[in-house]
Amino acid sequence: MITLFIKRFENRQKQKKQNLRNAFGSFAGKMGLLSNFLLFIGKLLIGLFSGSVSIMADAMNSLSDMLSSILTLVGFHIAGKPADKEHPYGHERFEYISGMMVSLLITFVGFQFFVTSIERIKDPQSIRVTPIVLIILVLSILIKVWQGLFYKAVAKKINSNTLVAASKDSFNDVFTTLAVLVSAGIEGFTGLQIDGFVGLLIACYIIYSGLQLIREFIDELMGLRPDQEEIDSMKEHLASVENIVGYHDLLIHQYGPNKKFASVHIEIDDRWDLNQAHEKIDAIEMNFKKELGVELVCHIDPVNLHDQKQQFIHQELKKIIKGIHSDLRAHDIRTVNYEEENQLLFDLVIPVKFQLSDYELRVEIQRQVYEKIGNYKIDVIFDHNYLL
C-alpha cells in the first residue's frame, strides 16, 4: 500500500516536471509533521488526564518529532537549491546539517525527560488508565509503524540518510510507547508504581538515540568512507576498461547524497599519442557519469611497455613488494639518473593496519633492490589509502 502511494505521488511529480528528490523530501516532511502533530495532541491530552509522566514523556517525544519534521522540510528546501557562486557544488550537504539539528533536539528533549522521571521516582503517583487511553496509545503505535515504513520507503527511493534516521526514530517511538503500555498494565495488575522508572528508561533510550544520530551526521559532515559496494562498483568499471595498463589512486568524495566526485590515475602505454589518450579517458569519465552518477576526473600515467630493462625492473620490484606483504602495491615505477646516481622512483600503497613503519619498509625494500635489481637508490612516496 505504501509502495503504491509513493508510486502515485512520483507519477504526479513527473507530470509536473518537478525535482523528484526535493518533492519526495518535502512530502515526507509534511506527512511527518501532520502525523506527529496528531500524536502529540493525543498523547498530551491522555497524559494530562491520566497523570502519567511516561505518557507525557512520550508526548514530548512526539513534539520533538514534529519539530524534526519542520527541520526536515527546511533541510530539503535549502538542499534543493542549485549551485551558485558561493556554493559551486550545490547545497545538498545542508541535509546533513538539518539532520544534526534534529539529533541535537532529540538529545535535549531526552535530558528533559530524564530530569522529570527522576522527580517522579522520588514522588510516585498513580496512573489513571481508561479504555480510551489504551485505544489512543495503540492507535499511536499503528501510526508510528506506518510512519516508519513510509520514511524508510522514501529514504530508499531518494537515498536520504536524513529520512533513514527519521525512520529509525519512528520505530524507536513504537518501542517507547509499548513501554508505556507495559508500565500502565503492570500498575493495573500489581499496583506497583513504576511509571517514573519506565519514563527514566525511555529518557535514556532517547538520549542514546540522539547521541548516535549526532555521531552519524558528524561523520557525514567530516567526510565518511563510501559504502564498500559503491567502491567495488567503481573498481569493476575501471577493471573492465579495455586497452589500459591499469589504474591506481582512486579517491572518492561527495558534497551531498547525489553529488559524488572521484579522481583516478589511469595507466596507459607511453607510445599512445595525446588524442588517443584523451579519447580513452573521456570515454571512462562519461561512462562513470552515465552508469554510476559520479563526476570522475582521470589523470594519465604513461607506462613503458617496450623497454626490456624497464620491464625487468618493474617485475622484480613488484616481486620484492609482494614478498614483503601481499597487499602492498607499487605504481608509477620509473628510473632516472640524477647527479650520476641511478634512482628508482615509485609510489607504494600501504594497506590498513600494516605492521612495519614507513622507515622500516623503506630500508627493507632498499636492501632487496640492491640485492636483486642492482645499484639503484629508491625514492618512495608512501600512500596510506583507506579505500582498499
Automatic annotation (TrEMBL):
It is found in: Membrane. Residues 32-222 form the Cation efflux protein transmembrane domain. GO terms for cellular component: membrane. Keywords: Membrane, Transmembrane, Transmembrane helix, Transport. GO terms for molecular function: monoatomic cation transmembrane transporter activity. Residues 226-302 form the Cation efflux protein cytoplasmic domain. The chain crosses the membrane at residues 37-57, 96-115, 127-146, 196-214. It is a multi-pass membrane protein. It holds the Pfam family ZT_dimer. NCBIfam families: CDF. Belongs to the cation diffusion facilitator (CDF) transporter (TC 2.A.4) family. PANTHER family: MANGANESE EFFLUX SYSTEM PROTEIN MNES, MITOCHONDRIAL METAL TRANSPORTER 1-RELATED. This is Cation transporter. It comes from Enterococcus rivorum.
